[in-house]
Each structure stands twice: as structure tokens, then as C-alpha cells.
Amino acid sequence: MAKSVGILAMPLCVVLLFYGCRALLGHHVLWLDILIFFVAVSVGQVISYLLLATGHRHAGLGLVGLSALVLLGLCFAAFSFKPPQLRIFRDSVTGEYGIGR
Questions:
Q1: Cα→Cα distances 17→33, 49, 56, Å
Q2: Fewest C-beta in 10 Å: which of 20, 21, 44, 95?
Q3: C-alpha closest to that of 4 among 57, 55, 71
Q4: What integer pLDDT is reported at residue 101 of this predicted model?
Q5: pTM reported for the whole predicted model
Q6: Domain coordinates in residue numbering, the chain
Q7: Which has the closest alpha carbon to 42: 18, 80, 6?
Q8: pLDDT score at 32
Q9: Average pLDDT over residues 68-81
């Protein structure tokens, strides 16, 4: 469960920080993008560690964590091939949405 929450926190952190910085600056900066990646990974690991360190164990939480990872994988596959027509999913080079169109 702790690792699942950490893994789910990382992309959420990347999206929030990247678009937050982009909204403030008006453009992207490569070194800041790389820093955002490292911050997101660190946040995910710290969250995972804190959840593991508390030592709370419950039989159903393992199933919840596994379900969250399966859901994340299904969302990744679905959004790769048929993403919603939102700007965040648009390929900046081709202008298309999804793989294999």
C-alpha cells in the first residue's frame, strides 16, 4: 500500500509542479523540468517511507495497493492509445492524440 501511494504521488507531483511553474513563468526551463522530476521522485519516496515507518498493518490494505497499481497500469494503457482530447495529452511534435493514429 505504501509503495502504491508513493508511485501514484509521483506523476501527480510532476503534473502539478510542471504546469504550476509553466503558468508562473509562461514557458518551460529545462533545468527546472529536471529539478521537478527529482522533487517528484523524492516526494513519492518520502511518502512511501512515512507510510511504511508508521507500521500500521491491515489485511485489506495490500489489496487496495495492488488494485491502485492495476488501475494506474490500465489508465496508462488507455490514455496511451485513446486519450481524451485535452491539451495535456496532445503530442507537441505531431499535434495528434494517442499512439497509432
A1: 9, 21, 30
A2: 95
A3: 71
A4: 54
A5: 0.70
A6: 2-89
A7: 6
A8: 94
A9: 87
- Cβ atoms < 10 Å from Cβ of 52: 13
CA dihedral 93, 95, 99, 101 (to 10 degrees): -130
Alpha-helix runs per DSSP H in 1-101: 2-25, 30-54, 59-81
What are 21-33's pLDDT values in tens digits? Answer: 988 998 888 999 9
Buried b / exposed e along 11-43 (16+ C-beta atoms within 10 A): eebbeebbeebeeeeeeeeeeeeeebeeebeeb
CA distance 15 to 84: 16
Residue written as grid cell 513519492: 44
